[in-house]
Design goal:
The complex is a heterodimer.
Chain A (H helix, E strand, L loop, with lengths): L5 H6 L11 E8 L8 H12 L4 H21 L2 E9 L2 E8 L7 H5 L8 H5 L7 H8 L2 E7 L3 E9 L4
Helix pairs in contact in A: 2-3, 3-6
Chain B lengths: L2 H7 L3 E4 L10 E4 L3 H7 L4 E5 L4 H10 L3 E4 L7 H9 L3 E4 L4 H10 L3 E2 L7
Parallel strand pairs in B: 2-3, 2-6, 3-4, 4-5
Antiparallel strand pairs in B: 1-5
Helix pairs in contact in B: 2-3
The chains are: A alpha+beta, B alpha/beta.
The complex binds adenosine-5'-triphosphate and magnesium ion.
Chain lengths: ~160, ~120
C-alpha cells in the first residue's frame, strides 16, 4: 500500500498548487445515526452545485464521499469529513477515531465486508464501497491503525465535461 | 420511456414528483444493496428496490437518479417522501414484486442500466 505525504499526493499529478486551499468545510459524523447518515455528503453536493462545478464532477465526488460517510457511520465510532476546494479540484479527507482496519488489503477487496445482518437489511454491506471510492476518485490514500482510527484522503481533479 | 408510462405499466401510485411524470427514463436497475446501485447509477435511470429507508433517497440524490420505484407494496414514511420531494426525485409505489416489476418493464423495452454509458 503506497502512502503519500500531502505534497507527494498532489505532485504525482503535476498538481502545483497543493497548498492553495480556497475554502474548507468540516462535517462531524457520528456512529450509528442512520437517519442523519448521508447529510454531510448532501451538504457537500449543495456546496459544489453552488460553486457551479460540472454535473459529472459533482457526481463523482458525492458518490465517493457518500460511501466514505456511510462507512464511518456503520463501521467507525465516528469522526470528521473535511472538504477542501483547490484551484483544480477538491479533496475529501475523512478521519475517524476507531476502531481501525486490521487488514487494509483485505478490506479493499471488492466483496469483502464485515457488515452485520442488520446493516445488510438496510441496504449496505455488499463490500463494494471501497471499489466505488476508487472508481470515482483520481487519487486514493488510506491509512489505518487498529485502536487509533482510519484516515482517507481522496483527490478529485476537474476534467473537461 | 416516460415515467408516466412506467407508472401505468406497474399500476403504481405516485408518492412524490407528480410534476416529473413526463421525464424520460432510459434504463433501470433493481437492487436492495446501495453500493451496487452506486456502481451502475446514471442520470436517466429508474431504481427498483424493496427497501424504503432514507438511504435509498440519499443514494439517488448522490448519483442523480431521477426515479425510484418501491416494489412489493412497500410504502416509505412521510419523512422519506418529503426528502424525495425536496430533491425533485420521483417516487412510485407498486404492489408488484421485484421480479414482476422488472420483467414488466424489460418486456416493455426499458433497457438494463448496464447497456448504457454512465451519464
Ligand atoms: N471507517 C472504517 N472503520 C473501520 N472499518 C472500516 C471503515 N471503512 C470500512 N471498513 C471495513 O472495510 C470493509 C469494506 O468496506 P466497503 O465500504 O468496501 O464495504 P462495506 O461497507 O462492508 O459494504 P458496502 O460499502 O458495499 O455497503 C467494511 O466491511 C469494514 O470492515
Ligand atoms: Mg461501505
Amino acid at each position: 500500500m503506497a502512502l503519500y505525504t500531502r505534497q507527494a499526493f498532489f505532485h504525482a499529478l503535476d498538481f502545483q498548487m497543493y497548498d492553495k486551499i480556497f475554502a474548507e468545510y468540516i462535517f462531524t459524523i457520528s456512529h450509528g445515526n442512520f437517519e442523519m447518515a448521508g447529510s454531510a455528503s448532501s451538504s457537500i453536493k449543495k456546496i459544489l452545485k453552488h460553486m457551479e462545478m460540472g454535473k459529472a464532477f459533482i457526481r463523482r465526488v458525492c458518490i465517493a464521499c457518500y460511501e466514505v460517510e456511510m462507512n464511518m457511520v456503520i463501521h467507525s465510532i465516528g469522526g470528521k469529513i473535511r472538504l477542501e476546494i483547490l484551484p483544480n479540484g477538491v479533496t475529501i479527507i475523512a478521519e475517524d477515531f476507531g476502531p481501525g482496519i486490521p487488514d487494509i488489503e483485505k478490506a479493499l477487496k471488492d466483496g469483502f465486508s464485515t457488515a452485520s445482518k442488520e446493516i445488510i437489511s438496510k441496504g449496505f454491506g455488499a463490500g463494494r464501497g471501497f471499489s466505488n471510492i476508487k472508481l470515482n476518485s483520481d487519487r486514493f490514500n488510506i491509512n489505518s491503525q487498529v485502536g487509533k482510527g482510519t484516515r482517507l484522503e481522496l483527490l478529485f481533479i476537474f476534467r473537461k465535461e | 420511456m416516460k415515467t408516466r408510462e412506467i407508472c401505468k405499466l406497474l399500476n403504481a401510485k405516485v408518492l412524490a414528483g407528480e410534476h416529473l411524470l413526463d421525464n424520460d427514463i432510459e434504463s433501470a436497475f433493481g437492487s436492495d444493496l446501495m453500493s451496487d446501485v452506486l456502481t451502475f447509477a446514471n442520470g436517466r435511470m429508474a431504481l427498483l428496490t424493496g427497501l424504503n429507508n432514507p438511504q435509498v433517497i440519499r443514494t439517488a440524490e448522490m448519483s442523480d437518479i431521477p426515479l425510484i420505484i418501491f416494489v412489493r407494496g412497500r410504502t416509505p414514511s412521510e419523512e422519506v417522501v418529503k426528502m424525495a420531494s425536496e430533491r425533485d426525485i420521483c417516487i412510485l409505489a407498486t404492489e408488484f414484486i421485484m421480479y414482476e416489476a422488472c420483467g414488466t418493464l424489460y418486456k416493455a423495452g426499458l433497457l438494463p442500466c448496464t447497456r448504457l454509458s454512465n451519464v
